[in-house]
Amino acid sequence: MATKATVKLADVAREAGVSKGTASNVFSRPEVVRDEVREHVLATAKAMGYGGPSVQGRLLRAGKVNAIGVAAVEPMAYFFEDPWARALMAEISAVCDASGTGMALVSAKNQQKLVWNIQSALVDGFILLCVEGGEKLVELTRERHLPFVALALGVDDKSIPTIGIDNIEGASMAARHLAELGHRRFAVLGTEFSEGGAGLLTDGQVRGATFSTSRDRAIGYWRTLAEFGVAPESVPVYETQDVASIRTAVAAIFAAPEPPTAILAMSDRVALVAMEWLAEQGLRVPEDVSIVGFDGVKEAELSEPPLTTIVQPLAEIARQAVQAILQDAVPAQRRSIPLTIAVRASTGKPKA
Amino acid sequence: MATKATVKLADVAREAGVSKGTASNVFSRPEVVRDEVREHVLATAKAMGYGGPSVQGRLLRAGKVNAIGVAAVEPMAYFFEDPWARALMAEISAVCDASGTGMALVSAKNQQKLVWNIQSALVDGFILLCVEGGEKLVELTRERHLPFVALALGVDDKSIPTIGIDNIEGASMAARHLAELGHRRFAVLGTEFSEGGAGLLTDGQVRGATFSTSRDRAIGYWRTLAEFGVAPESVPVYETQDVASIRTAVAAIFAAPEPPTAILAMSDRVALVAMEWLAEQGLRVPEDVSIVGFDGVKEAELSEPPLTTIVQPLAEIARQAVQAILQDAVPAQRRSIPLTIAVRASTGKPKA
DNA sequence: ATGATCTCTTGGATCGGTTCAAATCTACGC
DNA sequence: GCGTAGATTTGAACCGATCCAAGAGATCAT
Q1: In 3-state terms, chain B is what percent helix, strand and coil (to 5)?
Q2: For a Cys-Cys bond, which of A210, A349, B28, B163 suits A194, CB 3.0-4.6 Å?
Q3: Which chain A residues contact residue B89 at CB under 8 A?
Q4: Closest Cβ–Cβ partner in A77, A113, A121 for B100
């Protein structure tokens, strides 16, 4: 059903009695060929079942693929299932759409396959979603000698072109919001600090975290709360992983003799799971507990109650990332984009 | 930062003092070259900043891209935002993942760009999401002379390789479920029947629909209801488009002197919007009205109440589509995959 | 007629690899 | 010292187009 004996441009040219060059022009620069000739070549091509210039051939010559790859160390379905990834992909694709650039999904949970996929992806550059295994991903991508930009990179490395957010600043905003409402007893529901960890963390574990994203957010919370007279030692930080670990953590937090009146969650996902647990326990948000998320995913707007959260400027991140790659002008180092806070119904004054 | 003077294989070969052929073998068939030579060439390559064999060059020779394209006549963000598309994409990507195949997103709302994108996509074949503009899409894809499979194609055309579902059968299941619960007064909340239409349809308009998907579902509903003694004329069919048109339609349905006790919705999306309207009006589901959706998207499980719906076997559709393309064995004609019904809380016995 | 312009066409070089038949090298047996 | 099988290398052909300098024709003014 597909290409059969693969008719090529040269065949069409011969059959039509013109040179290869002319035949090529008929397809890629029709205006320079005389109408009569063009029609004839086109007709011959159609008759022979020629499927237009092979992309491969053209490609070899042009060098540009006109597509960018988006890579992650995750199964490919991640792009369509994870809320953050999805939101980001939607923004990236909107930018690509506008500039007529194609997108290729490059991904694999399996290291070996990932190597191969990155090596052989037909793209002009990469956008790396570094939520997990970021360093490895960057290293692999480097070898392709193509422009790339890392997003959500969890490690500090000045030599990696990154577009991101200022996590300390974002966390600060969340903490300030709650502190200004009058809260003084807090707990932090964190994301991953180190490979596979979970549970209550010590100050040292927080500062020595593998993933700087989590570390910076914790530091941002602590620092700002301190300004309001809340001692960091009084603000426990729980590391979480899957849903079960999140529930365990919230349970631990509220098992305390004097539970917090406000929760600082390092991601909307964590916050939403926590809200579910709270609802099950009959604790009202925000009357009994206020909670602030982080990321600004769509789901946060639709939850009951809607979640106050720090929203990431995904559209702007996407725009800058795609532009950087298309123009082969990747930032020399990390570039930060300002965050905003969306105040919704999950936060309020603490109980008197 | 990217490739500079672009070192090529020939350069490395010259520098290392071996032939181009040997250099090529070092990278693509390392086992045939002597260790000593291999090491030396590899070292030279690294020193010169050679980024491995260019994919383009290899490609030209090999002919296989090892990627399939998924195309739709929609803005690219559609793949990440539309519930049905997302669910399907997740399944497709799972299959691709398993076989190490890459995925490229090919899409554009703009006809001209779409043509170009399809023409130049670097893929071995296409999966077409034909929810809208299906015929045009098929036509364009044909020209590439690559294997392709159409999904959710809304038109009857035996010459198009399609993998789909039996819409009549699915609609039948929905209708039977409600009829067996005892319902006798129905209304159909339909999807698009013809380009841009909306509102109450006549029998003739239903049967003469442009989109066979909607037509078949309507026919399935009517046919089965008739078996239960419900005359087709008593079951109004409303065509809908955007959210506003859906709300208008439900409003019209419930403005009737004897409103139906059950709604047959042709898609989960339509059903969910309708449920929202019903909730606003204080009508309880299923106590006052039962409703059955179609598609089986994730959101249908999470709605309040969870929606009874006809679920499409997306995983199986995805598997067959990807396999067909990878093996260049596209079905000669339409192939149907059986549907199942997920009975949830949105349906119950009618009020006595 | 002759030369100057213009408009098309042509053919060969090139993109960056892979492939494979033939050439070269080694080691080993007699 | 000679022949031979086996292991490596080589070099030219090829994949399917695009690009461009140069050639061929047609048109028009002198």
Answers
A1: 45, 15, 40
A2: A210
A3: 77, 79-80
A4: A113
Q: Is B127 in the same domain as B242?
A: no
B93 CA: distance to closest CA in chain A (Å): 5
- Residue A329 has what pLDDT? 84
CATH code at A112?
3.40.50.2300
Whether A198 contacts A244, CB under 8 Å: no
Query: Does any domain span residue A89?
Result: yes
B31 CA → C6 C1’, Å: 59
Q: Do B94 and A104 touch (CB under 8 A)?
A: no
Q: Would you state the pLDDT for residue A333?
A: 78
B97 contact residues in A (CB cutoff 8 A): 75-77, 107-108
A89–B80 CB contact, under 8 Å: yes
Q: CA A170, CA A176: separation in Å to the nearest integer?
A: 10
- Encode pLDDT of A47-84 as tens digits: 988 888 888 888 888 888 889 999 999 999 999 998 89
Q: Is the CB of A26 under 7 A from strand D?
A: no
Strand C nucleotides in reach of protein CB atoms, 7 A cut-off: 7-21
Confidence of residue A2 (pLDDT cuts 50, 70, 90): very low
Report whether B152 contacts B314 (CB < 8 A).
Answer: no
If asked whether residues A169 and A241 sit together in one domain, one would say: yes
> pLDDT of B204-215, one tens digit each?
999 999 888 999
Give Cβ neighbours of residue B60 (< 8 Å, ≥ 6 apart): A56, A57, A59, A60
**Domain membership flag for residue B233:** yes
Helix (H/G/I), strand (E/B), else coil: B127: strand
pLDDT tens digits for A229-253?
999 999 999 999 999 999 999 999 9
Rounded to the nearest angstrom, the minimum Cα separation between B200 and chain A is: 32
Q: Cα separation of B157 and B346, whole Å?
A: 36
Q: How high is the pLDDT of residue B5?
A: 61
The Cα of A81 is separated from the nearest Cα of chain B by a number of Å equal to 7
What is the enclosing helix (H) or strand (E) of A164? strand A162-165
Statement to judge: residues B108 and B138 lie in one domain: yes
Ranges under pLDDT 70 in chain B? 1-5
Task: Pick out residues 48-87 of chain A having their CB under 7 A from any atom of nucleic acid strand D.
Answer: 52-54, 56-58, 60-62
CB pairs under 8 A between A and B: 162
- The Cα A56–Cα A41 span in angstroms is 21
Residue of A120, A162, A276 to mutate when probing chain B, most B C-beta within 10 A = A120
- At residue B196, the pLDDT reads 87
**Alpha-helix residue ranges (DSSP H) falling in chain B:** 9-16, 20-28, 35-48, 55-62, 78-81, 83-99, 111-120, 134-142, 167-181, 203-207, 212-227, 243-255, 268-280, 299-302, 314-326
Please state whether strand D lies within 7 Å of residue A32 at its CB atom.
no
Contacts with B106 from chain A: Cβ below 8 Å: 102
